[in-house]
Amino acid sequence: METQEFRDIRPSPIAGTWYPGEPSELRQLIDSFLQAAKTPQVQGEILGVIVPHAGLIYSGLTAAHAFKALIGKDYHRVILLSPSHQYYREPLLTTGHEAYATPLGLVPVDRKALSAIQQLLSTSTGIEITPVRRDREHSLEIELPFLQVVLPQDFSLVPLMLVDQSPELVRGLADAVAAYVRSLPAEEHTLLVASSDLSHFHTESRANQMDSRILRAVEAMDVAELYRLNARGEGEACGLAPIATALLACRELGADRVILADHRTSAAVTHDTSSVVGYGSALITKTA
């Protein structure tokens, strides 16, 4: 889509730092990750993916293991769920702009979908989705270049940043998202993307233990266990609520299996095992 179609574009605050700012360099980096990634065999429909959100040099290969499975798929819109690494008083945010800009072009925001989800959510819970302008949230934006590469057809974006990571908000949002997707024509496909890194700043041995617990709970679609692990300090995910929302919404939409795609830590790039960040990716599928 051409820039002039949108008067109000969110500029990227992280292009050139978290990922390359030059289009051909960015495309080449993503292509290299996709070529190196190995995607598990998938039976049925992919309803959602869980992917990490560090700088692409660190987490891009892990993300590619899930995103590669989307190549050749046709999705009309992407509901992208991320945490908020900046403080806001409001529990749930979206962008106040018409489109996101990355070096690969523009991604239009689906205002109609946002309005429908807002109506469903506020009716059932009273929670409002607050638009913000010129946010600096990397965990949402970092997924966009991958989506622009693997989904070559135009897709619209429903960006949701969860400040409040409580089970109550997760349940209400998951119900609203699922109800919205169910209301769409069968041929109008929607993908859920949950953005989250795993453990932060432990030794690699400790990180692997913690991440293994979280990923087992993800694979079992056990949201209650995810929250228990987090509360006990036995597992970590900065995007706990986005993961939980995607799992619950996809389950309401018929998902019956989570396929783990990849797990590694930042030590694979830095070679420093004394303090690492964990990255995992997964596919949420409907096989029945």
Summarize the structure.
The chain has a single domain (45-98, 122-286), classed as 3-Layer(aba) Sandwich (Protocatechuate 4,5-dioxygenase, Chain B), CATH 3.40.830.
Walkthrough of the structure:
Helices cover 39% and strands 23% of the residues. It contains ten helices and twelve strands. The strands form two sheets. Strands 2, 3, 4, 7, 8, 9, 10, 11 and 12 form a nine-stranded mixed β-sheet that branches. It is globular, with a radius of gyration of 17 Å. The model has no long low-confidence stretch (mean pLDDT 95).
CATH first level: which class?
Alpha Beta
Number of β-strand runs: 12
Shape, please? Answer: globular
How many structural domains are formed by the residues? 1
Give, in order, the helices and strands.
EHEHEEEEHEHHEHEEHHHEHE
**CATH-scheme architecture:** 3-Layer(aba) Sandwich
By helix and strand content, what is the structural category? alpha/beta
Strand composition percent: 15-25%
Q: Look up the CATH topology.
A: Protocatechuate 4,5-dioxygenase, Chain B
CATH superfamily: LigB-like
Mean of residue pLDDT values: 95
Our Rg estimate from Cα atoms comes to 17 Å
Number of helices: 10
The largest pleated sheet is described as:
9 strands, mixed
Unreliable spans are none
List the helices and strands and how they pair.
Layout: E1 9-10, H1 23-36, E2 45-51, H2 56-67, E3 77-83, E4 92-95, E5 99-102, E6 105-108, H3 111-125, E7 130-132, H4 138-141, H5 144-150, E8 156-162, H6 167-182, E9 190-195, E10 200-202, H7 204-219, H8 223-232, H9 240-252, E11 257-265, H10 267-270, E12 276-286
Parallel strand pairs: 1-5, 2-9, 3-8, 3-9, 4-7
Antiparallel strand pairs: 2-12, 4-8, 5-6, 10-12, 11-12
